[in-house]
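Entry 14. Structure prediction run on the chain below.
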Amino acid sequence: MSESFLLGRLLLQFNSEAADIITDLSAVALTPDGNLWLGSDETISIERLSPVAPHVFGQHYRFAIADFLELSGEGEIDIEGIDFSNNYLWLVGSHSTKRKKAKGKSADKDIERLAQIETDVNRYLLARIPIKDGILCESISHPENPEIQLTAGCLQRTATGNLLTEALKNDSHLGLYLSVPIPSKENGFDIEGLAVKGDRIFLGLRGPVLRGWAIILELEITEAEPGVLRLKEIGEGGKSYKKHFVDLRGLGVRELCWHGEDLIILAGPTMTVSGEMTVFRLRGILGREGDSITGQDGEDLEALFDLPFKVGADNAEGCRCFRIWARRRHFW
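Output returned:
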């Protein structure tokens, strides 16, 4: 019997302190202990929900990210991806700039606001925090080798971003988007997907989409010192990243997650419009030596299904799949 995929629903029960983030959830991960971890693009915290009944998660607990990582002020991280690997919870900010919104109160002020582009330093965050017994910790002993310490840390910061944005500034495809910089909701640089296997990190870009091709960045990291992560040279010519171009029918990446060694891609519009949202499966990405490009005409990329949506109301930002009975998987 072939494996099939179904779209399902979960009931998420938050306490009163999370009332302000429920409509802004932007990332989700499921850890082996059954806990569901969620992030918002408007906060500097991680939310944990535990299974309380079939398809129901509750017992909400909030972790302040500043308890484990050094942040700059109180600006939002714009969390867009969460994943779990090797006893670490990984998270990534959008690494994007934003244009101020028109408020509709004064035409002159709205025109002025639309000329203003802002940068929040905390958005340039790629980090990992150890987990023990469902609790985020600043440091823990490795479960299999107590002499090894697992320590919270993030990719080394720079004056204008971090080591990733510095590396990309001279890139032939992405450099312009980081040097201008173009705001995220205008096909600018915008990370919205995260999937981790060991020390291999895959970042899905909502934008830019180049002539219809979406981009997934691949990185590998090493711990230079406790709390400080750096990039390894893994690409051609000593580059510290690889680029994987994927034909998602003109859509950008909105989330990534693993199905075995295949990458599940939630794809959606790059701009601030309601539109088509599709789930794809990308095969073979773990075995690619250098940069790659995958079109719709081969067997490595498969469109699984389209998501139902209501114009102006539905905007999928996270997905996760897990087995609920033999040879069948649900997406949430």
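The chain is about 5% helix and 45% strand.
Filed with the rest of this week's runs.
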